Amino acid sequence: MSSRLFESAKEYAKKAYELDRQKRYREAEVYYLKAAEILQKLINFTENVSLKNLYYQRAMEYIYRVRELRGDVQISSSSSSATHMHRGSSSVSEEDKEKSELEKAIESIIIAEKPNIGWDDIANLEEAKRALREAVILPMKRKDLFTGARKAWRGILLFGPPGTGKTLLAKAVANEADATFFSVSAANLISKWLGESEKLVDTLYKVAREKAPSIIFFDEVDALLGARGQSGEHDSVRRVKNQLLQAIQGLSGDGDVITIGATNTPWDIDVAMRRRFERRIYIPLPTEESRKVIFQIHTRGIELDPDVDFDLLAKYTVGYSGADISLVCREALMRPIRELDASGLLEDPNSKPRNPNMNDFLMAIKKIKPSVSPDEITRYEEWNQQFGG
């Protein structure tokens, strides 16, 4: 599906270029926007960070060209001083309208109610919870203790293998701190206000200060903040990175607004941005005890056969992430439903599936493998030794 979308984007971009050369600007705008919209979808589909960055840069190029074309049309359509005066008076309202729409875009990525996630919903990770409590919750609850040289952290990076609970930790922190939670991704910055990412970043931090205490959470922050100056990097992308660097650097350090980033590839983050994340907290794969708790969490509300042994399941899932274990549980819990369906009794309201048993979980473990390799774990641990803390 991704390859088909990419080919469609290429065709729309090619058509846009041709119309642009022919000075058929209005028609070119339509095709540039179609190409950008498809690239936006590709960003959501692909897991490859380099491809995400490529799609983002191309989309931004197309959108900026549309803005240039629209600017040219406006300039050529006016010649008299009266028209200039009219545009001058209308530009103010346009700016107000733009500001209002930017703030609406920000509002749409705010989780208005506190995240319904608490510490108890996250298995163990006690060291990470303690670090986050010290870095976020204490400064927000006791600002009087964080004055002078004792400043709150402005930026915190949660890094580690995928599926280890980084997003859950960020939500739990916002819940415990009773803070407004802003959840942002590179896709948000494109899709919510395509081509206006710089202004969106500026407005994001402005609204966060107004709604303080606030936590701004960037998921997959590496997709947005890869190393600057890479080959093919569009100037607009570089400006967005600089804007975000300045926004985090400009925070007061009083705990009112804190930026939390999460990444599965910390080594891809720009060096300057890495320094802005003053605390870098490693979120590792779950321990054996943690895996036992994760199994218990993901089977809540389901009556299990007495032979289900969570201790044994925890031993059998070395190297599994929390997300992997979640999938194992879903697969195991579905097996009795499949049997009921295969027997032709699923549509009988009086028929009930049997309780999931130990064999269901063992078969699920056999089917679902760990998503993180030992070599990848070694790389995380080495990065943690060098930059973590």
Describe the structure.
This protein has 389 residues and is α/β, with parallel strands linked by helices. It has three domains: 1-73, Methane Monooxygenase Hydroxylase, Chain G, domain 1; 110-283, 3-Layer(aba) Sandwich (Rossmann fold); 288-371, Helicase, Ruva Protein, domain 3 (Orthogonal Bundle). Helices cover 58% and strands 7% of the residues. The protein contains 15 helices and six strands. It has helices spanning 2-21, 25-45, 49-76, 81-107, 126-141, 166-177, 186-191, 197-210, 235-249, 271-276, 288-297, 310-316, 322-342, 358-367, 374-387, and strands spanning 110-111, 155-159, 180-184, 214-218, 257-263, 279-282. The protein has a six-stranded mixed β-sheet, sandwiched between helices. Helix 9 (235-249) links the parallel strand 4 (214-218) and strand 5. Helix 2 (25-45) packs antiparallel against helix 3 (49-76) and helix 5 runs parallel beside helix 6. Mean pLDDT is 81; it is low at 72-92.
